[in-house]
Write a structure and sequence with these properties.
Elements lengths: L14 H16 L5 E5 L4 H7 L2 H6 L2 E6 L11 E6 L3 H16 L5 E6 L5 H9 L6 E5 L5 E4 L2 E3 L5 H7 L6 H15 L4 E5 L1 H17 L13 E5 L6 H4 L5 H8 L2 E2 L2 E4 L1 H4 L5 E4 L5 H6 L4 H20 L7 H38 L3 H13 L3 H13 L4 H15 L4 H15 L4 H9 L21 H11 L28 H10 L7 H7 L4 E5 L10 E3 L1
Parallel strand pairs: 1-2, 1-3, 3-4, 4-5, 7-14, 8-9
Antiparallel strand pairs: 6-7, 8-13, 10-11, 11-12
Helix pairs in contact: 4-5, 7-8, 10-14, 13-14, 15-16, 15-17, 16-18
Length: about 550
């Protein structure tokens, strides 16, 4: 007798985070008299668009929205709300605007709202600038932002620099609070795995906060999410410096995706201005091509165009009003939106191809990356990196290659490092001496002789360490195995079959009952600070993607 299958679970509704954030922001707005101006930090423009629209802001008394920037802001209402990330730069700009108002004898009420938390440093700066007594403070705990049905992000770009370069722990409490909020909404995690020092600290901090505030989620009979896996970014920096080859990866590399939104240039949309386009599963065209290898995207888009055209051709077969009503209600609306999306993504593909063909040498760049991973033809790799620097290829691509060399080989030999450093500064400017210094502090770009002296979480890995972990988890597929880019059976297709992301392999192994022997001990030996805490795991649990 066949074994009965457990009922399929539905995905948790992560839109609740949007609802919570929206209600909190509305509460803040209603606590201030009307009418009021809203001055926004530029970094918060996109995240706020995903939470609340301009029409809702106007309904709650916001008469005008301004971007926080240098210079005075004398126009506007008697009530002003500043919503900003707590940074020295923002605090100084706000203080300058308030002083300008005072000099012009403007009588205003100021509410300074910091997100995700108030900062004592910002308050001290405002006190030093002499405007502390003229303002009141509040905070807006913006935590998870739902970018798609299975993607949550905190959209906090400075985190990597703050922790891995500046060794700052300022954002840790926000991360721990966000996890605590998550458990409060969806139930307690049934099993937890942390890989990396940062991940360990954050989860321990979350547990301490729950002890202090008594915010346990044990009242839920059944959790909606079974497994939490926290992995430090430094565990797999190689995946981040390799050239992306999926459509979504290249789109982000070329145009930049922020808070799940991309700006399509005016030339692509055939309009006077660029448009903002949300990239998620509601866009059927994007959903089909986002994870496809770029080499196969045009073929798929061509098939999609023929499919849409065939639907439009049905109008020629309509003979009655009933046929027309059925066509409009069932086919036309969805097809029209797909038609527009198709045009945008075709234009984006053409723009990406033009960009890759006109900047640098993309084919040899991919060959160099593959050889660095496999340890083949190092003379070619060194020559291509040198040529790229001297020919002033786009700086970000050159830095990726330098970091990849350092990460896979435990640093760059001193002679080559000094030569490439001098050539790089002469090609791109000596102001980037600070850029190289920060990369060194992060452990991403170091000399082999100085690897042992680099402090911080050790991102720079010795060749033996990288080779060992790659062999243990089979990160480097055999050269004899041809990768089918059209119908891939292995995730290494992301990099033309040359590399399987370490993060993917870790998640795969941590979710398996039958793991690779010695995996736990190996992770600890590689200085990944591995920790696991498991209870009875519920089968069929949905695993989400949470990003910073």
């Amino acid at each position: 007798m066949a074994k009965s299958e457990s009922p399929r679970r539905t995905r948790p509704d992560f839109n609740i985070f949007r609802t919570v954030a929206k209600n909190q922001l509305i509460h803040l707005l209603e606590s201030i008299g009307e009418p009021k101006d809203l001055v926004l930090d530029d970094e918060l423009m996109r995240p706020l668009d995903r939470i609340i629209g301009a029409s809702v802001l106007k309904e709650h008394g916001v008469s005008a929205i301004y971007k926080l920037e240098k210079g005075s802001l004398l126009q506007g209402c008697a009530n002003r709300l500043y919503l900003f990330r707590p940074s020295v730069k923002n605090a100084v700009m706000i203080a300058a605007q308030i002083r300008a108002d005072q000099a012009a004898e403007k009588n205003r009420s100021y509410r300074l709202v910091m997100t995700p938390r108030r900062s004592v440093l910002c308050e001290k700066i405002l006190e030093r600038e002499g405007v502390y007594g003229a303002v009141s403070f509040d905070e807006f705990p913006l935590e998870f932002l739902c970018l798609d049905e299975d993607i949550l992000s905190m959209e906090y770009n400075p985190f990597f620099r703050e922790y891995f370069v500046d060794n700052s722990f300022s954002f840790f409490q926000t991360l721990a609070s966000a996890l605590m909020t998550f458990e409060g909404l969806f139930g307690k995690f049934q099993s937890v795995h942390t890989v990396g020092r940062c991940a360990n600290i954050i989860y321990c901090m979350k547990q301490k906060l729950q002890e202090v505030y008594g915010h346990e989620a044990s009242h839920r009979v059944e959790s909606e999410v079974g497994t939490l896996i926290l992995i430090d970014r430094d565990v797999d920096c190689i995946s981040a410096v390799l050239s992306p080859l999926t459509y979504e990866g290249l789109l982000d590399d070329h145009m930049g995706i922020s808070s799940g939104t991309v700006d399509f240039e005016a030339s692509l949309v055939g309009q006077p201005k660029s448009i903002k386009w949300i990239l998620n599963s509601q866009d059927e065209v994007f959903k089909d091509i986002r994870d496809r290898h770029f080499a196969t995207v045009f073929t798929h888009l061509s098939s999609k165009a023929k499919e849409i055209q065939s639907i439009y051709n049905r109008k020629n077969d309509m003979k009655t009003v009933s046929d027309m009503r059925t066509f409009v209600s069932k086919h036309l609306k969805g097809t029209s939106s797909q038609h527009r999306s198709l045009g945008l993504h075709i234009g984006a593909c053409e723009s990406i191809m033009q960009h890759k063909s006109s900047t640098g040498d993309f084919e040899n760049q991919l060959r160099t990356e593959h050889n660095l991973l496999q340890g083949f033809d190092m003379k070619f790799c060194q020559q291509f990196i040198e040529d790229s620097v001297l020919r002033c290829f786009p700086m970000v691509y050159v830095l990726r290659l330098l970091c990849l060399y350092s990460l896979t080989w435990g640093g760059i030999p001193t002679r080559l490092f000094q030569q490439w450093k001098n050539d790089f500064l002469q090609s791109y400017g000596y102001q980037h001496l600070l850029t190289l210094h920060k990369l060194r502090k992060a452990g991403l770009l170091v000399e082999q002789d100085s690897v042992s002296t680099v402090s911080l979480p050790k991102i720079g890995v010795r060749k033996s360490r990288f080779a060992s972990i790659a062999k243990l988890l089979n990160l480097l597929p055999s050269r004899q195995n041809e990768c089918d880019l059209r119908n891939p059976t292995d995730v290494s297709y992301l990099y033309n079959g040359s590399y399987t992301p370490l993060t993917y392999r870790l998640v795969e192994q941590l979710l398996l009952a039958d793991r690779i022997p010695g995996l736990n001990e190996a992770l600890r030996n590689f200085s990944y600070a591995y920790h696991t805490q498991e209870t009875v795991c519920i089968p069929g649990i949905f695993v989400m993607d949470m990003r910073l």
